[in-house]
Amino acid sequence: MQEAEVAGHVREYKSKKYYFCCGTCVQLFDKDPERYVAAHQSSAVTLKLKEKENLVDNVWAFRFESSEPFTWVAGQFIRVELPHDNSDEEGTKRWFTVSSAPFEGIIQITTRVTDSTFKQALAALLIGGKLHLLEKPDGDFVWEDSNKPLVFVAGGIGITPFRSILKQRTHDRQHLNVTLMYGNRTDAIVFKDEFDSYATQDSEFQIHYITGEPLTATKLAELEPNLNGSLVYVSGPEPMVEALGDELKAAGLPKAQLKQDFFPNYTAENY
CB within 8 A of 25, min separation 6: which ones? Predict the structure, then answer.
């Protein structure tokens, strides 16, 4: 609670204080407190692990089936809990984007397996093991039809909502009229083969891989000269998304043309 107070991650609603783990939770609460509180009531839904796959480097895909059917819009996230012994300060609960597309019929979580006790417990989960679903899919980081060009900016594992969005649109035979700028620490780029295949299938889809250097407003403007006239989505580690968002607005991008998706517990060193 003290850490939340220091970070400003505390809100009061109907005479009750709410403490949040990250900026994402605060943003969702501020947008609609009543909806947020209702969505966080306990759920009896469980997710059973069907398979897991090491995609690249320390990035793994965990594929689950739900005990109860539910739907989501490509780009949305869920909140889950994985109880485990001796959990560290990051706890037993996590937000994850559903990186699979709705048409696939499975719930895929794609994440870097770090040294946190949660990620180690997730990596050790046996086939048939379960997560508790705390919150069904939510969020507005989804495709928005616009008369402005669309630009997707991903930092590392922040690529997951874009993978879901692009895969669903490809399945639905909708145009990928978007520019994707994908920054990664190394050349070990998850989903690269998928994105390259989309680029060969749809000439409207443009992709730029940026490795070994930070994502900055200056770099993005070099790749997309009409950046300030675009609808820009930014997804990745919370500090990166906040800093890049501030840079973009300072460079002239209207706030209404910026959508952000924050990934807690990632930094410039581990995204």
Answer: 9, 95
- Tell me what pLDDT residue 1 has: 52
CA–CA distance from 87 to each of 90, 91, 109, 115, 170 (Å)?
Answer: 8, 6, 20, 11, 40
Instruction: Name the CATH architecture for the domain at 46-138.
Output: Beta Barrel (2.40)
Phi/psi for 183 (5° steps) reads -95, 135
pLDDT at residue 26, rounded to an integer: 78
Angle, nearest 10°, between helix axes 238-250 and 23-31? Answer: 60
Domain boundaries, the chain: 2-39, 46-138, 150-263
What architecture does CATH give domain 150-263? 3-Layer(aba) Sandwich (3.40)
- When pLDDT is averaged across residues 14-30 and rounded to a whole number, the result is 72
Residue 269 pLDDT more than 80? no
Confidence of residue 31 (pLDDT cuts 50, 70, 90): confident
The closest of 52, 48, 75, 43 to 64, measured between CA atoms, is 48
Name the phi and psi angles at 46, rounded to 5.
Answer: -120, 155
In terms of C-beta density within 10 A (0-12 exposed, 13-18 middle, 19 or more buried), how is residue 58 classed?
A: middle
Using a 10 angstrom Cβ sphere, with 0-12 exposed, 13-18 middle and 19 or more buried, the burial of residue 209 is: middle
What is the overall mean pLDDT for the chain? 91
User: Burial, 104: exposed, middle or buried (Cβ in 10 Å; 0-12, 13-18, 19+)?
Assistant: middle
